[in-house]
Design brief:
Layout (H helix, E strand, L loop, with lengths): L2 E5 L5 E3 L14 E6 L2 E6 L7 E7 L5 E3 L7 E6 L2 E7 L6 E3 L1 E3 L4 E5 L7 E4 L7 E5 L5 E6 L5 E7 L2 E2 L2 E4 L8 E6 L7 E9 L1 E5 L7 E6 L3 E3 L4 E7 L7 E4 L2 E3 L5 E4 L6 E6 L5 E6 L7 E4 L9 E5 L2 E9 L3 E8 L2 E2 L8 E6 L3 E9 L1 E7 L6 E4 L4 E3 L4 E7 L7 E4 L3 E5 L4 E5 L5 E6 L5 E6 L5 E4 L9 E4 L4 E7 L9 E4 L2 E3 L6 E3 L6 E6 L5 E6 L5 E4 L5 E3 L3 E8 L3 E2 L4 E6 L2 E4 L8 E4 L4 E6 L2 E2 L1 E2 L1 E3 L7 E5 L7 E2 L2 E9 L3 E8 L2 E2 L7 E6 L3 E9 L2 E6 L7 E5 L21 E7 L5 E2 L11 E9 L5 E11 L5 E11 L5 H6 L1 E10 L10 H8 ...
Parallel strand pairs: 1-9, 11-19, 20-27, 28-35, 36-43, 44-51, 52-60, 63-70, 71-75
Antiparallel strand pairs: 1-4, 2-5, 3-4, 5-8, 6-10, 7-8, 11-13, 12-14, 14-18, 15-16, 15-19, 17-18, 20-22, 21-23, 23-26, 24-25, 24-27, 28-30, 29-31, 31-34, 32-33, 32-35, 36-38, 37-39, 39-42, 40-43, 41-42, 44-46, 45-47, 47-50, 48-49, 48-51, 52-54, 53-55, 55-59, 56-61, 57-58, 57-60, 62-65, 64-66, ...
């Protein structure tokens, strides 16, 4: 809650919550101020509480209200006062109240009585009554039968709360008390009587019974209800109750009534119907019953109506199930061998019939057989042995015999096999024995390989016994002039048309090759003008070896672009120099080494400097084709702007220029030119005519754009002047040295501004009291002081040329930042009168200026104060502020105190900090 605005009515006197006049500013729980034609209430703490009250005096009761919240305002008579109370619970922000004289009147109209009800309790049927605004009216309504009917009372169409009260009379009527809402307009009361209805609560259907209600879930007084409750198959009849009392039906149909209240139907399910299933066990352990959930099986089981039983039958080893019956009806197993008896509606007997199992013997054989087989019978009973015979053909190893089940062992040397203890259908698999082979071993060597007649490389292998083996010897190209000798098991054999043949192999064979050697070739070094070819190796070279040689220039020749080639019958090959300066060539034929591309030797010129060295080297000699051996070279050097040349060197040796030209004679190597420069120093002249800050400062180009380029700092302890800026010859401010300033001699001059107002602090205090003449006295006192010790310079330079007090009825009229007010003070009459000079309507505002013109040194006013008092027969609400004028030469400034507010019976006790305050300078 921010504030409450109360309009002022003519002829009405307003008082606060402690019955003090509101014009006194509020002596109770809140503050009061007057704005236009209203009183404004604001909280003295953070905000209002939940309730605010005040008092008024008037001939008739005034009406106060808040639009949209009429019920928040209450009015009561309190002796000669009217007590106004405001409930703030649901209000926030700014509350604007409405007010008017007198109390409004409205009419209330009651309906006529009927056969169902009678109006009473201070009101009569059909009555029209005049009541005060916001008044509430109470009355009673007698209802003849509350179980049959219900009552609704409305005020202008809006339902009212009704409360049943004790019937003190001898009738059976039910009496209700009714109170209207506050009357804010003409009101019509209406009464409605409706038939009483009751709720039917029903149960949900379950798997034991079904429930259905005939009609809706509500019923009127005196009516009957009907419903059905039918048991599900496999369940006994359920128990049915209405409101806790058991009721009986016929064929699932039930009826209940007449109804005189809410109805609750409950149903308790009947018991389930069960049947027995008996399983007949085997006398000799030929089979067992199993539960499908792998739990202990019960030979007698109980199931409900239309239920089912699932089970498995496990035959003993060597037996199979023939038939499973229930009550002599054949059962068929489902997925996983599970039998199920479903839809059981009588007791069941389960029986099982088994037979002993036989197993089949089958054979798996290859299409082309290299063995003989004598087989036994095709069928064998559980647990018996089975015998058969398998023998290989001549030239083959024994066949491989395996079985799908059980154990099979070979017995003796006649090929007999016995399969023991047969417990399942068994397959006997027979695979041919492998054909016997001989090994061919090919001894490897250098310079050749073994290949087939088709040219495919051969390795050690095996071949069928008695077959032929053929091969060829293929020489590597570096061995192709050799005459190989071939031996098989140490016997030399000769080829036919290049093919070697070993016939009718009946044992392992070892093949060896001898007399295979590398070829030898000659290398010729062809000499020429300007170079020399040389080697430290023999010029007779084995095929595939590398031949190494070197190339050297003669004096004055350049071999950097020389082309070295190896020429043979197969063609010419370019030879590259390795990292060690030698040439290497692989020799696979007679070769001649040929060199071309030899040139006269020339030398280049390289300038080692880059853009950071700030110098440019220019050729005087022509160097497009290089400098010839023992020739000469000339050049010039030019430094960049803001730089100077310190040294020039050629190949590390310092040189000097003649007439600006540098010369290098007898050139026998590439030239590297290096130029060393430094930044040229530039002087800037700083001139300060007021204080000792003149100085010559040296700058270089690298200072530009850095903190070093900022203009020099100024040292000054003056209380009167502050440094303003450095300016150039044209008066333009300069904050840092620029590149343009380094091109010419530069002079910067210091400028200063007065700051003598910064030491002055003024504080204004005020209060309002009632003197012995019962006059209201407003007094303001302004204290002048300096926040630092006054220097001799300040004492001699600064003068106090005026001071005074501003006086206004509102804060808005004493705005010391207003330029028009400052101008009016500066342009005041400056006559030095002995007393106060008074000027009203300063700058056209409700503002008065009480001042004196004086010429004083700072020490004469330091710690001094001035005062102003105003008198009135009525309480005053005023604002005041002090001012002082300081002058140095042609400069004058005004310093103001903070405006001080004074109201009746309040005294500002907060002490103000006597520190320097912000200054408005005119």
């Amino acid at each position: 809650m921010e504030k409450i605005v109360i309009p002022i009515l003519d002829g009405v006197t307003y008082y606060d919550d402690v019955k003090r006049p509101m014009g006194a500013g509020g002596k109770g729980e809140y503050n009061i101020s007057k704005e236009n034609d209203s009183y404004v209430l604001t909280g003295k703490g953070d905000s209002f509480g939940d309730f605010v009250d005040f008092y008024v005096k008037a001939e008739e009761q005034p009406i106060f209200s808040i639009e949209g919240n009429e019920e928040a305002v209450y009015v009561e008579e309190d002796g000669s006062y009217w007590w106004i109370m405001v409930d703030l619970t649901d209000l926030d922000g700014t509350i604007n109240m409405s007010a008017q004289k007198g109390i409004e009147k409205y009419t209330v109209t009651w309906p006529n009585n009927s056969d169902e009800y009678i109006i009473g309790g201070g009101a009569t049927a059909g009555e029209i009554r005049e009541v005060n605004a916001n008044e509430q009216v109470s009355f009673t309504v007698s209802l003849k039968d509350k179980f049959k009917n219900s009552l609704v009372v409305k005020q202008n169409g809006e339902s009212l709360n009704i409360n049943e009260i004790k019937n003190e009379e001898s009738t059976d009527d039910t009496i209700y008390e009714v109170t209207t809402k506050p009357i804010t307009r003409d009101t019509q009361l209406t009464i409605e009587v409706k038939p009483q209805t009751y709720t039917i609560t029903v149960p949900e259907s379950t798997n034991a019974y079904t429930f259905s209600l005939v009609g809706s879930s509500t019923v009127s007084y005196g009516e009957n209800i009907q419903f059905y409750v039918v048991p599900q198959n496999g369940y006994e009849e359920p128990v049915v109750k209405v409101n806790g009392q058991q009721v009986n039906g016929a064929n699932g149909f039930y009826s209940y009534g007449p109804v005189t209240g809410d109805v609750k139907i409950t149903v308790t399910a009947g018991e389930t119907i069960h049947y027995q299933v008996n399983f007949i066990d085997s006398d000799n352990g030929e089979y067992t019953f199993e539960d499908i959930q792998s739990i202990a099986f019960k030979t007698t089981q109980e199931v409900g109506y239309n239920g089912s039983v699932s089970f498995k039958v496990k035959p003993a080893e060597g037996y199979v199930i023939k038939d499973v019956t229930a009550n002599n009806k054949l059962l068929v197993s489902g997925v996983g061998g599970v039998y199920t008896i479903g839809n059981i509606v009588e007791d069941q007997i389960v029986r099982v019939e088994v037979t002993k199992e036989q197993y089949n013997i089958t054979y798996e054989e290859p299409g082309e057989k290299h063995y003989s087989l004598q087989a036994g019978p095709k069928a064998v009973e559980y647990g018996e042995n089975y015998t058969f015979y398998v023998n290989p053909e001549e030239g083959y190893n024994n066949p491989t015999v395996t079985v799908s089940n059980g154990t099979c062992e070979a017995v003796g040397e006649n090929g007999m096999y016995i399969l023991s203890g047969i417990t399942a259908n068994t397959t006997i698999r027979i695979e041919n024995g492998s054909l016997k082979t001989q090994q061919i071993i090919l001894n490897s060597g250098e310079g050749f390989r073994y290949v087939s007649e088709e040219g495919e490389e051969l390795e050690n292998t095996t071949i069928p016994w008695g077959s032929d083996f053929t091969f060829k010897i293929e020489l590597d190209k570096n061995y192709n002039e050799s005459k190989p000798i071939v031996e098989v098991n140490s016997v030399v054999i000769s080829p036919e048309n290049g093919v070697y043949k070993i016939s009718s192999v009946d044992k392992d064979q070892v093949v060896s090759v001898a007399n295979v050697e590398r070829n030898i070739y000659n290398v010729t070094l062809k000499q020429g003008t300007g170079f020399e070819l040389s080697t430290t190796e023999s010029t007779e070279v084995h095929a595939g070896d590398t031949f190494t040689f070197s190339l050297k220039p003669e004096l004055g020749y350049d071999i950097s672009n020389a082309k070295v080639e190896a020429v043979g019958k197969s063609g010419t090959t370019y030879v590259e120099k390795d990292d060690n300066g030698y040439y290497n060539v692989t020799v696979n034929e007679d070769l001649t080494i040929v060199v071309t591309g030899i040139k006269d030797q020339t030398f280049s010129v390289t300038v080692l400097n880059d853009e950071t060295d700030h110098a440019t080297v220019k050729n005087v000699s022509e160097t497009a084709d290089g400098i010839k051996y023992d020739g000469s070279y000339q050049f010039t050097v030019e430094a960049d702007e803001f730089y100077q040349i310190d040294q020039v060197a050629i190949n590390g040796e310092e040189v000097s220029a003649v007439n600006g030209v540098y010369t290098k004679n007898n050139v026998t190597d590439n030239l590297q030119i290096e130029v060393i420069t430094s930044e040229k120093p530039i002087v800037v002249h700083y001139v300060d005519d007021k204080y000792d800050n003149s100085e010559d400062v040296v700058y270089t180009i690298s200072d530009i754009g850095t903190s070093s380029a900022k203009v020099k700092d100024v040292q000054n302890n003056s209380q009167v002047y502050a440094f303003d800026k450095w300016v150039d010859a044209e008066g333009i401010p300069v904050t840092e040295i620029t590149e343009d300033m380094l091109r010419n001699e530069t002079t910067l001059k210091a400028t200063w501004t007065p700051v003598f107002d910064k030491l002055m602090s003024i504080v204004t205090k005020g209060n309002e009291v009632v003197n012995e003449d019962e006059e209201y006295v407003v007094t303001y006192e302004t204290l002048f002081s300096f926040v630092e010790e006054i220097s001799e310079e300040y004492e001699s330079a600064v003068r106090i040329t005026g001071y005074g007090t501003l006086y206004a009825p509102t804060k808005e009229n004493i705005d010391t930042t207003d330029k028009e007010i400052q101008k009016a003070i500066m342009e005041r009459d400056r006559t030095e009168n002995p007393g106060l000079t008074i000027v009203n309507n300063v700058a056209g505002k409700q503002l008065s200026n009480y001042y004196r013109n004086r010429t004083l040194a700072p020490s004469e006013i330091n710690g001094q104060s001035i005062g102003l008092s105003k008198y009135s027969n009525n309480p005053l609400d005023r604002w005041g502020a002090g001012w002082i004028e300081l002058t140095v030469g042609e400069y004058s400034v005004l310093v103001f105190s903070e405006p001080e507010h004074v109201t009746y019976d309040e005294q500002v006790t907060q002490k103000m900090d006597l520190a320097a305050v912000d200054v408005n300078v005119y």
